[in-house]
């Protein structure tokens, strides 16, 4: 089997949270890109060339980042230069070097690998071109101007709270569908979900009644999510909550459950991403909640950082988070865009 059964007692779950909790507070240790301190209110004057280095463009999430960036750049009369590495990190390094050669005033970069780009980024920034990480974070040694991304932990926490509220005093016996092993986004979403459940149960009941009976990694893909869910069902263990770190895996797992006649009665809680299809299922009452990870907002915030930099701002926080939100049937209309590609 590609995944294995993991029975996590409360004490083990709490130990995991305590070990990995550092830096994962819902308190604003970083700024929203809407927060300004006066110096950031400077508006850039001039025509600029923005480089966009994407590790992949196969998913609608990344397409939406690019189309939103293009729309805003067109409005500002800025030029956007896109390079798609097609999943090849070595190609992405060459792409970033090409963007410098083309005279880009700033480079936005999205990568799956937190380490491989560090040397290239540091060479680029040492030459005077700022690099801004978008969506996924890079290792601390990478000298990026800042990172713009969704609040992965905050979204997970809000969705975990909501799930615990829906379950009330009933024990949560959960299956957890995870993204990619060792990645920060996956870890933060997972911890957020667990912490949110724990905090809500402690607040409302004075004790924790949570057991994760199965967990598996999917590499953020539908196909692997199907394998993980099939492996889980082969164990013939009952559970009442499906926790997941992304909508794309959640929906794939739900199809497996539906085909097996085991979807009814399961509470669905995803930490991200606010995918349009998930919103539609939430509107229909078939999907519990998801966290807001808006590619359009990430694009908007990233270009705001560029504008502030071009306007003379030099002091940026380590990260800018887009607002966290738990999207449910009660508030989905606030976020649903039928024309969105994602």
Q: Tell me which oligomeric state these chains represent.
A: single chain
Note the gap between the termini: 32 Å
Q: Helix amount, in percent?
A: 40-55%
- Gyration radius, to the nearest Å? 21 Å
Question: Count of DSSP E strands?
Answer: 12
* Overall body shape: elongated
How many separate helices? Answer: 10
- Can you summarize the main beta sheet? 6 strands, parallel
Describe the 3D structure.
The two termini are about 30 Å apart. The chain has a six-stranded parallel sheet, sandwiched between helices. The longest helix has 22 residues, at about 185-205. The protein is about 40% helix and about 15% strand. It has about 350 residues and is of the alpha/beta class. α4 (about 120-125) links the parallel β3 (about 105-110) and β4 (about 130-135). Residues about 1-45 have low confidence and may be disordered.
